[in-house]
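Complex 430.
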Amino acid sequence: MQAEAASPEGRGAHLVVIGAGIVGACTALAAIDRGMRVTILDPGPPGGEQAASYGNGCWLSFMSVLPPAMPGLWKQVPGFLRDPLGPLAIRWSYFPRVVPWLWAYLRSGWTEAQVLKTARALKSLLSDGPALHKDLAERAGVPELIRRDGLMYVYPSREEYEKEAMGWRIRKAVGLSWKEIGPEEMRQLQPDLDRRYGFGALFEEAGHCTDPGAYVAALVEQAVTEGAELRRVAATGFRIEGGRLKGVLTGEGEVPADRAVIAAGARSKALAAAAGTRVPLETERGYHAVVLGAETGPRIPIMPSDGKMAITPTRAGLRVSGQVEIAGIEAAPNWKRSEILRDHLLRSFPGLPRDLPAERVKFWMGHRPSMPDGLPCIGLSAATPDVVLAFGHGHVGLVSGPRSGQAAAALAAGTSPGIDLESYEPRRFT
Ligand SMILES: Cc1cc2nc3c(=O)[nH]c(=O)nc-3n(C[C@H](O)[C@H](O)[C@H](O)COP(=O)(O)OP(=O)(O)OC[C@H]3O[C@@H](n4cnc5c(N)ncnc54)[C@H](O)[C@@H]3O)c2cc1C
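Predicted structure with flavin-adenine dinucleotide bound:
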């Protein structure tokens, strides 16, 4: 089958979206809106357990503008190596391979000015995330999966909150505002939360998704209803001739294509290289534990400062997610990390039973697709303007998925992405 001729704006062009996580799903829908013919490739089920989009913290947190690397983090690197179960850990065996990424990661957050620059760049991707998700969920017939009840960071005391003054200063500098919650109001808002948390920062306009896996599946199903084709196959490369894309290569032959978007999450690196662009993409492995049918929990999702983990009510139960483990894509999960999350959850909500049977707790590990500077890659490949890179969303891929998808679809169509993409330039490290 020959790909149809495309108009300059991409209308009628055949776009192959590689990856059916949140970024791929949003890209597919945005491309349909532009009149493109869309094929989605993924060897796994859309929103399935293989995807980071399945198991994340569910937070639609437009305020997550701080990159993971902050000034002074370098002092903690020995600890990351020493404590294999700390909130951020690097496996010794993987350390030599990750040194260049780690160095770029630390350098990107060396000064407050650098962090502020990153925060400004992230804000444009994140700020309307909750509203865009609400629209997408309605379009896909699953409005109940997106809630806008707010999100809250909780601390033992105001003093603990003030220890993170730089982060709050930067959030303020990029125009974010929040409500400070004292001990009394905390008791009203979170009556079941352990009494040791007496202070909070509440973002009332933020939201969460109650089942990210099902949500992504619904978005992809909606794309199919609106004309997209879904194929359960992995992309392996591209046929590019004379600087133009001719087809996407797969284990089952070539899919003719005018344009392609690489949205394969943590597995995008080799595909980007196949399109001529080398990127320092790593996986920050993360974990979750879900207490099925939890007896109690937060009224709105919280992140306790002492655990740096998101505690979120979901359809299946109470999900606690977090941890960063640098150990590559292939290493087996270390379920002790999910146990740490579970135990922190039990400490945070004393009303949960201490003796939870194993069948009531579900563990998961997945791969945050992470660039060293905490910013994704959204831009054209080096080999051809027909291949767009849209991956590397690290800790904020769920909330930033819709805006990223719109930008990727616009680039694929050859039109303006609507936001300044300079900070996301895939070749910024070369
Ligand atoms: C523990 C944890 C907590 C998190 N919490 C939050 C949060 O609260 N809020 C937030 O905004 N973000 C959060 N994130 C980050 C967020 O989940 C990710 O950034 C986001 O899901 C990345 O989406 P993606 O579509 O790029 O990748 P993925 O969701 O990983 O999807 C990539 C897809 O590509 C497919 N694929 C891989 N290789 C190929 C190939 N060769 N061909 C075709 N398809 C392929 C995969 O099968 C997969 O389905 C969290 C992540 C983790 C791990």
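Residues 1-57+206-280+372-430 form a domain with the FAD/NAD(P)-binding domain fold (CATH 3.50.50.60).
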